[in-house]
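Objective 1b. Sequence-to-structure analysis of ESIP1 protein.
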Amino acid sequence: VGPYVLVTPNETRRKQLQQIAKKELDDLERWKKEHKPGPITLVPQRLGGNESEAQVRQNQQMILMQSKYQKKHKREEYVKAKKAAEEAEILKKKAIQREKAERLEVKKRQEEMQRREMLLEDQKYKTNELLNRLDVGLPKSDSCQIANPGPESTAWKRSRAYKQALGEEENRRLEEMKQEQRRKAELMEFKQKQEDETRTRALKNEQRRVNNAFLDRLQSKTQPDIYHPGYTG
């Protein structure tokens, strides 16, 4: 630590500063007393509304009960809407599964139809092959110039008639199967159209019900609770 000089305080200067500060504080107190606000004088008047305290309390109690009922009503509507949405989702999934099952059934029927057609074609081919082998040993129609046909020509005619009848029967059965498949396809398409219309109608009804419930909730907010026991209209 270096050398320092001790300065003796000036008592006269300190007293002057203290006097100036005391004078400013006194002036401030005097100013506050002079500018102190006087008493407030108001004209007596009636405050509050036209209802009594008991009636106000009763109205508050009624509003509280109505709010509780509205909350309960909103909660019930929410549960109903949630349940309806779940049921609609379940119906939608069931409809999708039903459509898949119907498409699978149509596919199985088509495959069965194709299998039957292939079986008929194979049977027809084998029958024609057998009849052709029988025709090899029989005389042709243009080579038979005898007056009295023999047993060979009679057998040949019978084989030709049987072959023609068998072919007509196979064609008839094939045509019937095609018509049956066509009728089933038309019936399936008609049924699918009806299910689509039913599903669309159900969705529209559900949307209308949800909209009506929403409008009812809005109306219940703007009108008093008519189900409250103390409601007088």
